[in-house]
Structure formats: structure tokens, C-alpha cells
From TrEMBL:
<keyword id="KW-0963">Cytoplasm</keyword>
<dbReference type="GO" id="GO:0004359">
    <property type="term" value="F:glutaminase activity"/>
</dbReference>
<comment type="pathway">
    <text>Purine metabolism; IMP biosynthesis via de novo pathway; 5-amino-1-(5-phospho-D-ribosyl)imidazole from N(2)-formyl-N(1)-(5-phospho-D-ribosyl)glycinamide: step 1/2.</text>
</comment>
<dbReference type="GO" id="GO:0005737">
    <property type="term" value="C:cytoplasm"/>
</dbReference>
<dbReference type="GO" id="GO:0006189">
    <property type="term" value="P:'de novo' IMP biosynthetic process"/>
</dbReference>
<dbReference type="InterPro" id="IPR029062">
    <property type="entry name" value="Class_I_gatase-like"/>
</dbReference>
<feature type="active site">
    <location>
        <position position="202"/>
    </location>
</feature>
<dbReference type="Pfam" id="PF13507">
    <property type="entry name" value="GATase_5"/>
</dbReference>
<keyword id="KW-0436">Ligase</keyword>
<keyword id="KW-0547">Nucleotide-binding</keyword>
<keyword id="KW-0315">Glutamine amidotransferase</keyword>
<comment type="function">
    <text>Part of the phosphoribosylformylglycinamidine synthase complex involved in the purines biosynthetic pathway. Catalyzes the ATP-dependent conversion of formylglycinamide ribonucleotide (FGAR) and glutamine to yield formylglycinamidine ribonucleotide (FGAM) and glutamate. The FGAM synthase complex is composed of three subunits. PurQ produces an ammonia molecule by converting glutamine to glutamate. PurL transfers the ammonia molecule to FGAR to form FGAM in an ATP-dependent manner.</text>
</comment>
<keyword id="KW-0658">Purine biosynthesis</keyword>
<keyword id="KW-0378">Hydrolase</keyword>
<feature type="active site" description="Nucleophile">
    <location>
        <position position="85"/>
    </location>
</feature>
<keyword id="KW-0067">ATP-binding</keyword>
<protein>
    <recommendedName>
        <fullName>Phosphoribosylformylglycinamidine synthase subunit PurQ</fullName>
        <ecNumber>6.3.5.3</ecNumber>
        <ecNumber>3.5.1.2</ecNumber>
    </recommendedName>
</protein>
Length: 225
């Protein structure tokens, strides 16, 4: 599978994503947004960074780039798509998933390892894990707080589209384990198709063993393998 890692002005995790994907055995290439999706793209990553300087809202301008129409069409056709951090913001702003990401409750940028509880293990993104398993993946964001209105949140839960929740090392979902004030401790969600997902933590930063950190994020990227 060839995965297109879409690069916008201000993206800064595109090279990291390519290297991590190649580490798990996936062919990947960076694609400049103005060039459109390659015809042979069998997967898509919207990487982290600060597209367009986070002007207006994080991800809002990139979500309106012409390539995102191609991404939406590809997602509708079943092509796997994942948005990470700024890519999650772009994904939600473009309607790939419900909810939105806004300023952290702390009102500051946070860069730290966090624990995530795997809420479902029957999706492409979580097939490498067990339901309820706790993994460690870092965050690096200033606008990562997941917000969604009450009715839409109820639908999200009823449809079982919460992929990860912030938790403590023992898997307890608590306010203390919530790094940014996200509604219901949500860290990652699915779109209407299980082949579409967004999450704020960075799996590509928890994949390479030579970094000397957790490699728990590799399982998420193996969805493309």
C-alpha cells in the first residue's frame, strides 16, 4: 500500500509520519497539497503541525484546501484516512469526523506522554491491541480539547465511535488523567466509516525504538500495512 502524507504550509510532522510508516513496512510519500492526491494513493495521513499558522482556528484554513475534497471523496470510497494532531483538527474542520478541537483547558501548549485506553479493538486502527488495553503515546498541542454538543456526543457514544480515551496507567478514565479538558476524556474518534479516524496524540512519535521511548503507537500505523 502507498500512503500519501499530505503536506500543508506549516505541517511539521510529515517527515516523521513517513519514517514511522516505513518502519512498520508501509510505503509512504509526502504530497504537497497543491499537487492533489496521487492516483495510486491507497491510504492518507493528515499529519501534525501548524497549518497556516493556526489562523482563524487550528486546521480551519487547510480544511478548505482543494485537496480536502479529494480526501473526502477517497474516504467515502473506503480509503483509510487518519488525521493526527493538526491533522485531527483538519479532519474535524472538514467534516470527516464529528466534534471539534479547541484551546486546552490549561490555555497552554502541552507536550508530554499520556496514557490512552483502547475503547475498541475491532477497527483497522486498533486491531493490534486488546479492548481496554492501555498504551502510552505523546501529545503536543495547544488546541487539543475535544468538544462536541450533548446530542452529537450521545450519538458518538451510541454508535461506538470513540476510539481512545485519556486514562491513567491503570486504565481509569478520570479528570486527573485528562490532559486538556476533552469532553468525556475523548482522545480519538472514528468517522462514519471505521476506515476514517482522527486523534490528538502522535502515534508516529511512539513508533521508532531508536527514540528510546514507548513504541505503542506503531499498532495504529499498522492499519495501513
Amino acid at each position: 500500500m502507498t500512503v500519501a502524507v499530505v503536506q500543508f504550509g506549516g505541517s511539521n510532522c510529515d517527515r516523521d509520519a513517513v519514517r514511522a510508516l516505513e518502519h512498520v513496512g508501509v510505503d509512504a510519500e509526502r504530497v504537497w497539497h497543491e499537487d492533489g492526491l496521487p492516483a495510486d494513493a491507497e491510504g492518507i495521513v493528515l499529519p501534525g503541525g501548524f497549518s497556516y499558522g493556526d489562523y482563524l482556528r487550528a486546521g480551519a484554513m487547510a480544511a478548505r484546501a482543494p485537496i480536502m475534497e479529494e480526501v473526502r471523496e477517497a474516504a467515502a470510497d473506503g480509503v483509510p484516512v487518519i488525521g493526527v494532531c493538526n491533522g485531527a483538527q483538519i479532519g474535524s474542520e472538514s467534516g470527516l469526523t464529528d466534534g471539534a478541537f479547541t484551546t486546552n483547558a490549561s490555555a497552554r501548549f502541552q507536550c508530554e506522554p499520556v496514557h490512552l485506553r483502547v475503547e475498541r479493538a475491532d477497527t483497522p486502527w486498533t486491531a493490534a491491541y486488546e479492548e481496554g488495553e492501555v498504551i502510552e503515546v505523546p501529545i503536543a498541542h495547544g488546541e487539543g480539547r475535544f468538544e462536541i454538543d450533548e446530542a452529537a456526543h450521545a450519538d458518538l457514544v451510541a454508535d461506538d465511535r470513540v476510539l481512545f480515551r485519556y486514562c491513567d496507567a491503570d486504565g481509569n478514565v478520570t479528570d486527573a488523567a485528562n490532559p486538556n479538558g476533552s469532553t468525556d476524556n475523548v482522545a480519538g474518534v472514528l468517522g462514519e466509516r471505521e476506515s476514517v479516524a482522527v486523534l490528538m496524540p502522535h502515534p508516529e512519535r511512539a513508533t521508532l525504538p531508536d527514540l528510546g521511548r514507548s513504541t505503542d503507537g506503531a499498532g495504529i500505523l499498522r492499519a495501513f500495512a
